[in-house]
Amino acid sequence: MAGSRRDSTIPPFTPDDPVLAAHLKSVRAFGERLNEPIAVIDRQFNLVYANKPAHDSPDCREIETPAVKCHTAFAGQSDPCPTCPAQQVFDGLDFKQVIEQVPPDATTCGVVETFPLHSADGELACVVQILKPRGTAGRSTAEAGLPKDSDHLGGMIGHSPAMRDLFEMIRLIADSQATVLLQGESGTGKELVARTIHQLSARREKPFVVVDCGTLTETLLESELFGHLKGAFTGAHASKKGLFQEADGGTIFLDEIADTSAHFQAKLLRVLQEGEVKPVGSGRSTKVDVRVISATNKDLQGLIKAKTFREDLYYRLAVLPLALPPLRDRREDIPLLVRHFIEASCLRHRKPLRDVAADAMRALMNAPWPGNIRELEHLIERAVVTTSGPHVTHAHLFGSNPSHTAPAETDLRTVARTAAQQAERIRIEEALRQASGNRSHAARLLKVSRANLYNKLRAYQID
After folding, report:
1. Which value, to the nearest 10 degrees, does the dihedral of the CA atoms of residues 394, 399, 401, 404 take?
2. C-alpha 443 chain-centroid distance
3. pLDDT one-digit tens code per residue, 431-463
4. If we measure between CA atoms, which residue out of 59, 116, 54, 114 comes closest to residue 83?
5. Residue 292 is inside which H or E element, if any?
6. First and final CA of the chain: distance in angstroms?
7. 198, 318, 334, 395: which sits with the fewest CB atoms below 10 Å from its CB?
8. How far is CA 459 from the centre of its chain?
9. CA 16: distance to chain centroid?
């Protein structure tokens, strides 16, 4: 190993922003549990954090300086790597596996994946880098034993960039003990994500307990979660152990957390802070070891401003926030989901396996899906149960009335996004014609990196 290290730690970077500070705390917590080298850098390429495997990497050089640059520590260079994946993220490119952004052998520092860390105002402040493990320099991702691309993770299905990003983040955080906040529209599969995180964690052999906070009154919710003593309230004819105690050693999933009262939020905050529950009617607390995953389809930041959700509880719940994409933003996953739901419904209802007609699939791809995956699943199951024949047709799904055909989105955001994509595609094709097909030349004309251009070519299927 070149250079010397007097100390294998970096002075803690403690930003003023509480959300970013919470993110960094979580990265440090599970970074020390990983065998893979990971590092965090800021916009100036300063090394904010590096775990022990990163320090022990044979390519690692000086790390003891607080303001050391990542390219200095891991590549021995005075300037950033010629093709820097982190720079691509800071430039606004969607964070994806590096093997999709740049050629695998193009990163001198050995980065194979990147993930963004945002501040409370949504600004991209830092990037987490996963580096090649020790002794894997020059080897491919598969050879290094890193996770391969897959259309499935647990019960989740998807191959869109948004889902691949979500899969990788779930793999990264699953074995952490930190709380997770899942945010997404109704029907996006928040409970399935929570269950997948549990199944991939060391707690998988312990209980996974689901609580729908939106369907219980405040008294019942407290009783269900924390337990109660006999006679604590009218109808409490016997003492009852709470779900936090039932889930001891495992995971508890609190769905619709935004629908809870201020009084309950205060009690939940104490559980998260102290790791103990106090049954209703009791003066004694009981220690519990439970990982909390919560979910909401509401804007908690807006609720905090409206004084209906506690800010301190939000930061306790959102140590590891995950945003679930709506189905309209991952349309390339619809054929996969449709085939899965067709097979599952045919098997469940003892029907012969059926195919989907081309016009039906086109309509499914263009539908707005306000109910997201849940709406799609129910539509497919209804068609399988109520019709027959070798194919599921457009009429089976939407009826013979054209007005029942699933409409394409016409909201302003979608129109603007579609127009921008069309304009971008036209400009890329024009640049390629001007460059006589030379992609490097075309990238210079467009004033983007080659990796960025390659990504756009794949996204728009431009040959």
Report:
1. -80
2. 30
3. 888 888 888 888 888 888 887 888 788 777 776
4. 114
5. strand 291-296
6. 44
7. 395
8. 20
9. 25
